[in-house]
Write a structure and sequence with these properties.
The chain is mainly beta. Helix content is about 0%, strand content about 40%. The protein is globular and about 75 Å long.
């Protein structure tokens, strides 16, 4: 189907209407291929028109010509319980010169679950009227998965919130940098954030979002606090939520669990970066021997296209706690790990948790997951995120310096080495160092740099992690580098295991006077170190600097004591992974069963 110009009016609209549809299931998507080419081809948008709702919902837009090519659009529709149709509008203001076309319209997974003759087992729910058999985790999640509403009957309103009438019993944290915003329809900035909520799938519904435009700055945080819950030691308490992370500069969404009111608590889950223009569902099982609270933290990225959305938060198998969480004194928070080991029965091949004497496998030490209650198994390891603020090296160390001096406190003159720096402390000969760090964007912020005013041409400086025991299948390193100057050398990221060292990433020469993002995939590896190696150029005219080093998604997989959900795939080794990770050329299962041709 293509557009043929038939008039010369100033404003022209070509409108294509779909037939009417009665309803869709919760996993429904619409896809089509479009062609929009020409200097004055104009904009186009797809609208959702729902019976009984006056305001149309924009599902998709293109603002200008996108080259002489067919492009695919995939739109998440989700559960639409009322009759609806689509309107594809092509808008031309003044002269229309170009070609607009659409082809291969396709609906997928749009039917409701089929009726079943039986529905047995504790992990399933039999819908009252439609007789569909659905996963028990879909009960009371603010979405009519059955098609008759029976999975949302008799639900406790205090355990769920769709933000249609405010924050329910959730609260904004007063200790963060700014607040989550409740909104309808699209966020104010184009090409980031949702166009609609998750509950209704229309612009009429409400959701929360994190605004990343000014005056927000990189790494500003907004925290949402749940109500308090009673202990859940058997892991039957489940927290479900839907999140939206769309935009080139989306940074991070994290979920924490705490049992003390003046701490952030334990990290349960996080997600980095752009996840495309869609709502995604996440389920977390909560274990706690004490009353607890959930914190949802959004972090601003390095630009205005970094909006994050949150909707349809709910708890299943949890009960509210009618009390207050205790506080802990700041002196207690600073208590160091005991110098002597507690009484224990650990073998030489096991690690002793410093506070409890509990034994864990040595491979669980330094694997980006705290297995000891006091986190002592991760205390002498590289930190997951390092911004070098407060002059903290986060576990990174320079082996060559330790051999020469035994301590960082001894100043080694005329040696090409890594050191902490900031714009406010620069000397005239360090004019090619960054004038601001990447974390704060100010002269006061700290970064790591290799000072080329020392050393000679070809000298190298290494800074390394402690030994990392094990990483997961999607592990990668994200960091920011600054390489500016006429005689800049090179920067390498190396992988060292036993006595073998291999190169993972390298960059040479001047890259301009700005911070540049780099990403290095690691995947599943064991007993290794990561090394950043700077190589000096022919003169001092150029320094290599790094900042904001992050190990993302690096904790190894865990075998859950819960069966895999309907949204997950069970690997041959019993791990559960999201189904959308199947056949993606990544060994997510660690045994490659998710990439088997037999799937």
């Amino acid at each position: 189907m293509f557009i043929l110009k038939t008039s010369n009016s100033i404003s022209q609209i070509a409108r294509l209407r779909s037939p009417k549809f009665r309803q869709t299931g919760s996993n429904c998507t619409l896809s089509f291929w479009y062609y929009n080419y020409g200097e004055s081809v104009g904009a186009a948008e797809l609208q959702l028109l729902v019976d009984g709702v006056k305001r149309p919902t924009v599902l998709w837009r293109t603002y200008y010509g996108e080259g002489s090519q067919w492009l695919k659009a995939v739109i998440q529709l989700g559960r639409l319980p009322h009759a609806f149709q689509f309107s594809l509008d092509k808008i031309s203001l003044g002269i229309y010169e170009g070609v607009s076309a659409i082809d291969d319209i396709r609906f997928e997974n749009c039917a409701l679950p089929p009726p079943a003759s039986s529905c047995e087992g504790p992990n399933h729910f039999w819908c009252r009227d439609t007789k569909a058999c659905i996963d028990n985790l879909l009960i009371c999640d603010l979405l009519d998965d059955c098609g008759d509403g029976s999975d949302e009957d008799s639900c406790d309103p205090d355990l769920q919130c769709n933000f249609e009438n405010g924050l329910c019993n959730w609260e904004q944290d007063v200790q963060d940098d700014f607040d989550w915003i409740r909104i309808q329809g699209p966020t104010p900035t184009v090409n980031t954030g949702p166009l609609k909520d998750h509950t209704t799938g229309t612009a009429r519904g409400h959701y929360l979002y994190l605004e990343s435009s000014e005056p927000r700055q990189f790494r500003d945080k907004a925290v949402l606090l749940s109500p308090l819950f009673n202990p859940s030691e058997n892991g039957t308490c489940a927290f479900r939520f839907h999140y939206h992370m769309f935009g080139k500069q989306v940074y991070r969404l994290s979920v924490f669990q705490r049992s003390v009111s003046n701490t952030k608590g334990w990290l349960l889950w996080y997600k980095f970066g752009n996840q495309e223009n869609r709502w995604l569902r996440q389920t977390l099982f909560i274990r706690s021997s004490k009353p607890f609270q959930i914190l949802v933290e959004g972090t601003v990225g390095d630009g205005f296209t970094g909006d994050i959305g949150l909707d349809d938060v709910s708890f299943l198998g949890c009960t509210l706690y009618n009390g207050n969480l205790p506080t802990i004194s700041t002196t207690t928070l600073r208590t160091s790990v005991p110098a002597t080991l507690p009484m224990n029965n650990c073998t030489e091949k096991e690690f002793v948790c410093r506070a409890s004497g509990h034994c864990i496998q040595m491979i669980q030490k330094c694997d980006f997951r705290p297995d000891c209650s006091d986190k002592s198994d991760e205390s002498a390891c590289v930190m997951e995120v390092c911004d070098f603020e407060d002059k903290n090296l986060c576990g990174w160390h320079q082996p060559a310096l330790e051999q020469m001096s035994g301590t960082y406190s001894v100043h080694i003159t005329k040696t090409f080495m890594w050191q902490l720096g900031r714009g406010a402390n620069l000397y005239p000969e360090q004019g090619h160092c960054p004038s601001t760090d990447h974390t704060t964007g100010t002269e006061e912020g700290w970064y790591l740099f290799a000072d080329s005013s020392n050393g000679e041409f070809g000298n190298t400086a290494d800074i390394a992690t402690p030994v990392i025991s094990l990483t997961g299948p999607r592990c990668k390193i994200i960091f920011w580098n600054h390489m500016n100057g006429s005689t800049i050398g090179s920067l390498e990221v190396l992988y060292k295991s036993s006595n073998k060292t291999s190169k993972l990433w390298t960059q040479s020469g001047s890259q301009g006077p700005q911070w540049n993002r780099a990403e290095v995939f690691l995947g599943v590896r064991s007993d290794f170190q990561i090394i950043f190696r700077a190589k000096r150029g022919v003169s001092y005219m150029g320094d290599v600097a790094v900042d904001d080093i992050t190990f993302e998604d690096c904790s190894p997989l865990l075998i859950s004591d819960k069966p895999c959900t309907s949204e997950e795939f069970m690997c041959a080794n019993k791990y559960c992974i999201p189904k959308n990770n199947l056949c993606d050329f990544v060994n997510d299962c660690e045994d490659n069963s998710d990439e088997s041709p037999r799937i």
